[in-house]
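Hey, resending since the last one bounced:
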Amino acid sequence: MAKNKSCFFLTALFLLAAPMLAYSTEGEEDGTLLDTTADLLNISSPSFAAAQGAFKLWKQGKASDPVHVWLDALEISESDALQPNEDGSLTMPPDTVWVSESFPVDANTSFLSGAVLGDGSERVSVSLLWLSKQTVLKQDTFLRLELQKDQHFRFNLAEMEVPENADAVRLALCNQDSGQPARWHSILLNAALSYTPEITLTASRLGYEPEWPKTFSVHTNFRASQATFVIKDDTDKKCFQGQLSGAELITGHGGVPWPGYYYQGDFSDFQDEGVFTIEVQCDQCEPVSREIFIRYQVLWNRAFLPALLPFKAMRSEENNPDGHLHLWNETGENPATDGELLWNLARSWSFLYVRFADSPVLTALEEEVFYGAEKTADYVLGKSPLLSDEPHVQNRFLNALTCIARTGRGSDTILKAACLMMEKQLESSPSDPWTFYAALDLYVATQEERYFEYAAAHVPGITLDRVESMLTYESLSADTVSPFAREQFGKSADILLQSAKNAYDLPQGTQPHEAGFFLLEKEGAQICRGNTVRVLSAAEIAAQAYRYTADRRYLRFVCSQFNWIWGNNPMDACLVADAGEKEFLIPGAVMHGIGPVNAQTDIPAFPETGEKDWKAYRGFSLNNNASYIVALSHLLRIPTVPPKK
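The structure tokens again:
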């Protein structure tokens, strides 16, 4: 890990958890210790006025309620009343309390001070709510001063020390008048800090494609006012230079802030190949650096093959004791069925076999695909075409065989087994999309009209599960599919991009069961598995959107998701075993990934092997590897050209 002191903390050092913070340095650096001041909140600052959704984490309640009721009620509903007036002031209704977002504090916080200016209602007050584990520990009230001019009043807070055990603070503005509104003209809350600066630089450990978007990330425990980077070659010559994005805070589900500040560096315009060094300078701190690798088709040559190794290592020599087909010994958490695994391998191969013909990597993929397909076909022809009592599993087996058969590269055994499974399927007159897809595959493979006639009579509507089959139908009928596919993939990808505005381009959950970056919408204390599969699912959608739209925003998003998997994450961890610096599990195992600190806190964690709940993060299943291979295949199927140099 490239840093100048220590690794990423799971518990916050001092978090300035609002998107409009200001930072200034008071005095000179003394050794490694810096004394600074930071505006936690300043509604008069230009950065606050320009911030999108500046009050999105503020909450509103009744001033007449007890303090603990403010917090209990405010955690679950956002206020839509905080709309600044033209002069930037805020008008507060009668009997109302506003509570700001939570600002975490720790031992690096020396004291807080503040000032608030307002007019209107006389029954107003301002206080700090010191919190410990989201419970009010202490309430400190600002001192009220009367100002004659324009009948304004002022509230002051002078150097209030942080109470013992406090881990956060909120500002509460209260209007207890039942009929008179109040107006707040300025709100300032300032912190004095003493800390040792820490800078962490992370990037993809596997490398970058020259012509594709290329980014890295930086994490600091202070808000740098100047952050730049240079790229140097092996002779220390500067080849490229740029500015990092502005310091930003990342906020998880429920408004929980991640520790510190985050920045992104973009060197997409640098397209030379070779081994280089990124060097980052933040303010006057010592530069930090790390080595990167740029090479044409690096993702195919270095990233794809390792993920195939666990499949070969976990092949099943015998079928199940009950006689059912068994292809791989999937024993991890979140397992996939053999039908799902074979389908994902087969469709990935179908995307790549033309572009990467004769490549050793493709040969390894073909070996695994045809191992599973031939064993399945032998079982179908020798025992039974019914491989599972679950329709979705049976459909995945069927589509895996028909997907191979349509290419003309499968054996006669695979084609015969696919036809036999299809005949069995048609006995029940199904009308599901997967039978439709299989029928089109077999029409391409055999040119038998009955398959197309069945498909034409059972069109399920335009679906995106297997776009290739839908496009085949489009070419044989009067129906139009391509514009719909382009529109739907674009819409889905736009939702992901909207949720991924941070230094890692990491999306927050967009599905009903997902919450934040790592959590699930469920109750209980059970830890969530890492978010690798969620990240790969997002990459797959965006890769297809890029294929149909050529919008490079989607390509950048896909590359960022894989960069996260390959080490550009707060833990500086490559999530493919043996593809980074650490070896554990089965070589090539795709780990469950970065997950939450606990089941309720959306802050990244990655416990070491043997620590509590470590298997939810560092464990793996073949399902992870299959998701990785599919998502990477969607990206690699898109043609690229060698760099100009």
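Confidence is low (pLDDT under 50) at residues 3-30, 75-79.

Sorry for the duplicate.
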